[in-house]
Amino acid sequence: MRDLWLADDLDDAPILAEIRELADEARVRLRAVKPAALAAEARSEAPQGVLAHAEPLAEADFEGLLSAGRGPWAAPFLLFLDGITDPQNLGALLRSAEAAGVSGVVLPRHRAAHVTPTVAKAAAGAVEHLPMALVGGLPTALARAREAGVWTIGLDSGGDTSLFDLALAVEPVALVLGAEGRGLGRLVSERCDVTASIPLRGALGSLNVAAAAALACFEVARRRSA
Predict the structure, then answer these.
(1) CA gap 3, 12 in Å, rounded
(2) How far apart are CA 34 and CA 216, in angstroms?
(3) Residue-wise pLDDT tens for the chain (226 aa)?
(4) Which of 41, 63, 94, 159 would give a disulfide with 197, using CB separation of 3.0 to 4.6 Å?
(5) CA dihedral in degrees (140, 141, 144, 150; nearest 10)?
(6) Within 13 Å of residue 207, how many CA atoms lie on the same side as its CB?
C-alpha cells in the first residue's frame, strides 16, 4: 500500500482508530483530504471516507493454477468466468469464491470485467487472497485444463444433470459460469466435461450469476469436506 486517504469530516469511530493504528504499524502515509477530492479519486459509489492507493495486483500464472490447490485441499478448485461484465457481480462472486476455498479464478483477457475499484470494494478484500489469471480465450483454456486432469463443470439452466447429483470428491475441479443474460457461450459449453443446472422451485427461471456462483462453490466445498 502506497498511502491512505481519510476524509477530513469523518466522525471519530473505533474502526477509524484501528485503521490509523494499522497504517502506523505498516508505515503507510496517512492524508486527510476533502470529501469531494476523495470521492473523485475513488471512482466508485459511496467510498465511505476511506481510500487506499495500492500496487497493481500480480497476475497469476494459468499453468500454476492447474496444478495447485489451497488450504487443506491439494487439488485445484477453480472458477472459469465466461465474459461476466457487471463489476458488482464479479466482486460479489469473488468474495463468495474466496470464502468457499476456491484456489484460483480464470478470466478472459477481453470483453469481461476485471478488477476495478468497484470490483475490489464488492469483493471485500477477496482480491488480495484469490489468485486470478487472464487468458486469451476461455475455450482454449478449458481444453488445457482437461489435459491437466481438471474436471470442468459448466453451470447452465439447461444442464444435463443437477448440481446436487454430481459425483464430486477431492479431484481437481473447475466451475464454469457464463455471463449475465446469455449464459455460457457455445464453444465454452462444448469444452466442459459436463453441464449442470441448479434446481429452481419458484417461478423465476434463473439466478443472478453471483448467487449461482456462491451456491455452486459452497456445494463443491461441502462435498470436498465430506
Answers:
(1) 20
(2) 43
(3) 789 999 998 888 899 999 999 999 989 999 999 998 998 888 777 778 898 888 888 899 999 999 887 877 789 999 999 989 899 999 999 999 999 999 999 999 998 888 888 898 899 889 999 999 999 999 999 999 999 999 999 998 888 899 999 888 778 999 999 987 788 999 999 999 999 999 988 888 788 899 999 999 999 999 888 7
(4) 159
(5) -140
(6) 19
For residue 62, what is its C-alpha cell? 494459468
Show me where the domains of the chain are located.
Answer: 3-53, 62-225
Q: CB of 213 within 8 A of CB of 96? A: yes
